[in-house]
């Protein structure tokens, strides 16, 4: 067994706080009514008469039932099941005796209560295990004390404590009260990997039954006595602001309580990039019901005007910076021209190995290709919304957010309340994809509730949501490759940029595998706000790079997997440069696995096959995508995915997430775009913004995980970026046409 | 404002709303049945799907005044104990990711199976094409529909 100091634990575990019972019940009172039924259906014994809090992560009932608090936001990545699984495994409890509750935001107790960077599991892996192991140890100590035997002789298995020599045994419930009084141990033993009994086994979504029976779970489902509904009118275009408005007729409409303008932040408000909004002054329509406020909003008479250039001071993980938002109404056609123009100039050199100029001069073949991708809206299925009830000395917020801990200071500052008077509770969330990292809507609803002195739920319509900004940036890249007379790849040059950020990862593969390598980038300012979108930057550059490598392999007359493996062998055995940020052996490992599982070597089997592989969020993914032509239309038949993300907590749920990444990647590469005319997004709902649908999804998806003992790494994002390359490469095989510019549908191919 | 007597999940509900109010908001805001979801409001996403009689309809496009005597079934009323074959299949295949679209998917799927108990893959795709799943659970949905069809 591995011993681990509970250093973090001593600070993190506050015993017998009222938090788990008090805070949670308050926040989620609307769920209480369905609890007893849910428990009965889980075929578990009665609810306990008393709960004993062992530490901030779990409490044990007098009948042995255990409640585990899941600290992180649940956006569909299934952490509400997988995080408690980790605690339960170390605790040594039968999974059927576990109830799961959402923990409220508590930065003293939990680390990284953020759904971002695919880090939920990896950043809490140790603390979750420690929470379970600490509780197990305290139960053992309580039993040792009761039975007057050495603690080392007591075993804890599946919720039962046993002392073989004396024949004593007891359930966790019997010892829970005594255990809650035991001092937190200085050091605890973690299980060996081979001893895991829950981790690595598939467990169903703990909210599954509530989801399929339509129970209230999501932010939009929050109902409170006396609650009002608010909706916002924001400028129709980026680069515009509110001039004046006439709300007389809107105010006369049924159910409408008030209409007023609201400034979100003062000019000198200290904000982080996660607080920002493009539209700092909006019109609030407040009423009794959602339909009523949506109708009244249409009756507003508003004058908008052009906004000046603004420069906003922002902090990003401790770095202070000024971000410039230029004046003007932007257009997609100009965006494209500007990107092409900048990409034709010299960029900022980010990495240079060897002598790429000479290699290109001496090349016998040079391949050059350019790629681009449009702005995208996250379009979480559940639009932005949040509930707030702000009184003179307290603020209660409840709803869907990926970053409660980063929003709390901004809310406190905006309300003029001390931070400990702001309580944030998370609901289950109808998707995240990065959009809910940016919580301006929490500040908005808190400010509205404070002003009107009432509980308020803020609701964005789909149109509001899609036209508010925080888009995936638009990107452009040119790749060049030099081949010598023997078709060896002698140099690679990537130049890339975007609006407003560059997607370059200069130290990722194929850097390190080539003697001559040049990476440059550039950026273009814009007043259109952007934000992290599932696998930021990777979600474009992976597809571009992996499509380009396919063309290089073809020009060199090599199998595309073999070309990659050769490069990775070089990177492993004799890497160029010091700063390569990937593990070439694990990279090659997923390619080998996908090669085997897709029967790559047994030929194309009547399919048009494309391959791709990428590394991001500390994980490695390789994919093979098969297309068959049906009545002259390419149809994606099958995708085979190989993933190395270390230990997999919940394999079937992890598979589900990887399948989602595949469908998501095909969909966005193929169909989706936000374009702009005079600053206004031209797509505001799903009639114009196309998302992938049932008939366009692959007919089957197969997912394989590399089996190893490495601590878990990211999974939510990594399967998403590479599939775009595999798709483009398979489409080429199927139709003879290469695809460079997303969405591919505009390049005249149609997926069946 | 006008008074309507609606037959929802086998119970009669009396409500007083503007006749143009879509059933989606009547259900969610007035009757407090929030299982039916808002996704687009323009009949494009299927999140708001309910049954009107035996047909799957988009409740965001169904004004309360058009319902009359017809029976409405929502996800909450699809079965008494969450044991409709489609719900059971959804749990068995563990379909949901975020779960937000799934009530709509289940209502469309259950209406499909009622009128066509053994649909082909193409028939499933066609029937389900109006229901977006942003998380991309389409392959599992298809598997679950087939599982339900077999049961
Ligand atoms: S909300 Fe009715 S179809 Fe989208
Ligand atoms: S499960 Fe998230 S939208 Fe379908």
Please provide a written account of the structure.
The complex is a heterodimer of chains A (752) and B (151). Chain A is an alpha+beta fold and 752 residues long. Chain A folds into three domains: 2-212, Aldehyde oxidase/xanthine dehydrogenase, molybdopterin binding domain (Aldehyde Oxidoreductase, domain 4, 2-Layer Sandwich), CATH 3.30.365; 219-312 and 384-459, Aldehyde Oxidoreductase, domain 4 (2-Layer Sandwich); 474-746, Aldehyde Oxidoreductase, domain 4 (2-Layer Sandwich). In chain A, helix 5 runs parallel beside helix 6 (120-147), helix 6 (120-147) packs across helix 7 and helix 17 packs antiparallel against helix 18. The longest helix of chain A has 28 residues, at 120-147. Residues 7-44 of chain A have low confidence and may be disordered. In chain B, strand 3 (49-52) and strand 4 (55-58) form a beta hairpin. Chain B has a five-stranded mixed beta sheet, sandwiched between helices. The longest helix of chain B has 14 residues, at 102-115. Helix content of chain B is 34%, strand content 17%. Chain B has helices at 23-30, 85-93, 102-115, 121-128, 138-150; strands at 2-8, 11-17, 49-52, 55-58, 71-73. Chain B has 151 residues and is of the alpha+beta class. Chain B contains five helices and five strands. The radius of gyration of chain B is 15 Å and the shape is globular. At the A-B interface, helix 8, helix 10 and helix 19 of A face helix 1, helix 2, helix 3, helix 4 and helix 5 of B. The complex binds FE2/S2 (inorganic) cluster (2 copies). One FE2/S2 (inorganic) cluster sits between chains B (96-102, 133-135, 137) and A (76, 381, 431). One FE2/S2 (inorganic) cluster (FES) sits between chains B (96-102, 133-135, 137) and A (76, 381, 431).
């Amino acid at each position: 067994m591995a011993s681990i100091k509970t250093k973090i634990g001593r600070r993190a575990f506050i015993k017998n706080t009222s938090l788990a019972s008090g805070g949670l019940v308050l926040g989620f009172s609307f769920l209480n009514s369905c609890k007893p039924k849910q428990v009965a259906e889980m075929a578990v014994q009665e609810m306990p008469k008393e709960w004993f809090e062992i530490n901030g992560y779990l409490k044990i009932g007098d009948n042995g039932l255990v409640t585990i608090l899941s600290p992180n936001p649940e956006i569909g990545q299934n952490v509400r099941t997988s995080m408690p699984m980790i605690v339960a495994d170390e605790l040594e409890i039968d999974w059927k005796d576990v109830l799961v509750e959402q923990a409220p935001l508590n930065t003293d107790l939990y680390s990284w209560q953020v759904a971002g960077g695919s880090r939920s599991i990896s950043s809490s892996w140790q603390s979750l295990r420690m929470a379970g192991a600490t509780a197990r140890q305290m139960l053992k100590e309580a039993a040792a004390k009761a039975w007057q035997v050495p603690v080392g002789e007591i075993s804890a298995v599946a919720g039962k404590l046993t002392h073989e020599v004396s024949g004593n045994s007891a359930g966790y419930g019997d010892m829970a009260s005594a255990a809650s009084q035991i001092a937190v141990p200085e050091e605890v033993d973690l299980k060996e990997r081979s001893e895991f009994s829950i981790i690595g086994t598939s467990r169903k979504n703990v909210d599954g039954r509530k989801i399929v029976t339509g129970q209230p779970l999501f932010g939009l489902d929050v109902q409170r006595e006396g609650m009002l509904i608010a909706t916002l009118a924001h400028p129709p275009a980026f680069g515009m602001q509110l001039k004046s408005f006439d709300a007389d007729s809107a105010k006369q409409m049924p159910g409408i309580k008030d209409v007023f303008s609201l400034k979100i932040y003062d000019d000198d408000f200290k904000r982080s990039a996660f607080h920002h909004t493009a539209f700092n002054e909006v019109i609030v329509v407040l009423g009794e019901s959602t339909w009523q406020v949506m109708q009244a909003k249409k009756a507003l008479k508003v004058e908008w005007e052009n906004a000046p250039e603004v420069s906003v001071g922002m902090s990003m993980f401790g770095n202070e910076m000024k971000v410039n938002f230029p004046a003007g109404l932007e257009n997609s056609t100009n965006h494209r021209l500007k990107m092409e123009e900048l990409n034709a100039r010299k960029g900022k050199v980010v990495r240079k190995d060897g002598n790429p100029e000479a290699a290109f001069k001496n090349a016998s073949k040079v391949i050059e290709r350019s790629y681009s991708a449009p702005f995208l809206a996250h379009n979480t299925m559940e639009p932005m919304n949040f509930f707030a009830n702000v009184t003179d000395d307290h603020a209660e917020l409840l709803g869907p957010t990926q970053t409660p801990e980063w929003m709390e200071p901004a809310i406190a500052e905006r309300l003029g309340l001390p931070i400990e008077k702001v309580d944030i509770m998370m609901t289950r969330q109808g998707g995240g994809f990065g959009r809910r990292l940016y919580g301006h809507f929490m500040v908005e609803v808190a400010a509205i509730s404070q002003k009107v002195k009432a509980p308020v739920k803020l609701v964005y319509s789909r149109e509001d949501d899609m036209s508010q900004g925080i888009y995936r940036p638009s990107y452009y890249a040119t790749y060049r490759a030099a081949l010598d007379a023997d078709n060896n790849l002698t140099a690679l040059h990537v130049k890339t940029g975007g609006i407003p950020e560059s997607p370059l990862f200069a130290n990722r593969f194929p850097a390190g595998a080539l003697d001559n390598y040049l990476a440059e980038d550039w950026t273009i300012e814009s007043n259109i706000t952007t934000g992290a979108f599932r696998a930021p930057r990777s979600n474009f550059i992976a597809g571009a790079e992996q499509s380009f490598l396919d063309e290089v392999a073809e020009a060199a007359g090599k199998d595309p997997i073999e070309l990659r493996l050769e490069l990775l062998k070089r990177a492993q055995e004799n890497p160029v440069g010091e700063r390569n940020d990937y593990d070439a052996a694990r990279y090659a490992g997923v390619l080998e696995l996908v090669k085997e599982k897709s029967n790559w070597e047994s030929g194309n089997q009547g399919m048009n096959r494309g391959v791709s592989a990428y590394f991001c969020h500390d994980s490695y993914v390789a994919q093979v995508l098969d297309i068959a032509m049906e009545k002259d239309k390419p149809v994606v038949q099958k995708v085979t995915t190989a993933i190395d993300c270390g230990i997999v907590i919940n394999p079937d749920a992890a598979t589900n997430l990887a399948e989602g990444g595949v469908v998501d990647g095909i969909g966005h590469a193929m169909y989706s775009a936000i374009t702009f005319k005079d600053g206004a997004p031209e797509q505001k709902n799903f009639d114009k913004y196309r998302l992938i649908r049932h008939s366009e999804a692959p007919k089957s998806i197969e997912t394989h995980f590399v089996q190893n003992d490495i601590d878990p790494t990211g999974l939510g994002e990594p399967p998403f970026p590479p599939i775009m390359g595999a798709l483009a490469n398979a489409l080429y095989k199927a139709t003879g046409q290469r695809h460079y510019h997303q969405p591919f549908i505009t390049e005249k191919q149609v997926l069946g | 404002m006008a008074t309507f007597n609606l037959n929802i999940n086998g119970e009669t509900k009396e409500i007083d709303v503007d006749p143009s109010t879509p059933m989606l908001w009547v259900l969610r805001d007035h009757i407090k049945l929030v299982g039916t979801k808002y996704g687009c409001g323009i009949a494009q996403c299927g999140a708001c799907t309910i049954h009107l009689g035996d047909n799957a309809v988009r409740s965001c496009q169904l004004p309360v005044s058009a319902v009359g005597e017809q029976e409405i079934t929502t996800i909450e009323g699809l079965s008494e104990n969450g044991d409709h074959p489609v719900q059971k299949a959804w749990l068995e295949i563990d379909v949901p990711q975020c779960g937000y679209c799934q009530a709509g998917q289940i209502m469309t799927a259950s209406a499909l199976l009622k009128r066509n108990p053994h649909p082909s893959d193409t028939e499933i795709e066609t029937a389900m094409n109006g229901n977006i799943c942003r998380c991309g659970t389409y392959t599992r949905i298809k598997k679950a529909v087939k599982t339900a069809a077999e049961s």
